[in-house]
Amino acid sequence: MKLENRVCVVVGAGQTPGETIGNGRAAAITYAREGAKLLLVDHVEERAEETRAMIADEGFQANVLVADVTDETGCRAIAEEATARFGRIDVLHYNVGKSQGDGEVAELASENWSDIMTLNLTGYYLTCKHALPTMRAQRSGVIVGISSMAAHGAHMNMTYGVSKAGMNALTKSMAIHNARYGIRVNAIMPGLMDTPMAIERRAREQDRSRDEIRAERARQVPLLGRQGTGWDVAYAALFLASDDARYITGVCLPVDGGLSARG
Question: What b/e readout covers 104-119, taking b as 16+ CB neighbours within 10 angstroms?
Fold first, then answer.
């Protein structure tokens, strides 16, 4: 097992309700299958408990913590709970983000800008800020941040793209500043994914069927003309979290079916 007895904190371990599996839930289940000791964090207890139940159904255990990453108190509580319960933090997986309410600059409400930036970027900074002292003291640790291919190029979800570009920059900065402690920091940039967060809102807001949204997105993907899934992100995260990637830090890895290769 690649993560046997390692303490993995998955922030955003629940998911938006939907037909498919989300990135955070898939990562939590994958980590469990690889022997990790898990702390599942979400701001909605029911969603985290659903993930815990799925893990339990496979014969593994996990613990749940309700925390709000838009509040520094919640971010501090994540690190405190992990260290109090397990004595260490080996992997911090940050899978929190939203794009709802986004738009272009001239039309975007400042409150929407603040909400998206706080959740996507400030929450990442604060969660890492409070986990890093434990990792530094143990002189080891891995941070995996879930960014997005939206960090590259211009999109209607302008604030989302800016926040994810900020995540990439913060990932590289943390990688350099913490390398001497044996801490690795990387990000994953999913492309067009068939996850509840990506599909459900678009179907609802555009008053179109899920399958129509899926087909439209899939046509844009070079690799076999299909979207990725939460499992594709989870397996990339497992690689970065494990010793298989022990010489990799400061990387923002596209998981996008070749979209980024188009330039």
Answer: eeeeeeeebbebbbeb
195 vs 234: CA distance, rounded Å: 12
**How many residues make up the chain in this entry?**
263
For the stretch 49-69, pLDDT in tens is: 999 999 999 999 999 999 999
Question: For residues 148 and 190, what is the distance between their CA atoms, to the nearest angstrom?
Answer: 5
DSSP code of 227? -
Position 201 confidence tier, pLDDT thresholds 50, 70, 90:
confident
Q: Which of 31, 94, 160, 235 is catalytic?
A: 160
Annotate 144-163 with DSSP letters as a single string.
EEE--GGGSS--S-HHHHHH
Write down the pTM of the prediction: 0.96
- From first CA to last CA, the distance across the chain in angstroms is 37
Contact by Cβ (8 Å): 252, 174: no
Residue 160 is a catalytic residue: yes
Instruction: Give which of 46, 44, 40 is closest to 28, Cα–Cα.
Output: 40
Q: Please say whether the beta carbons of 74 and 110 come within 8 A.
A: no
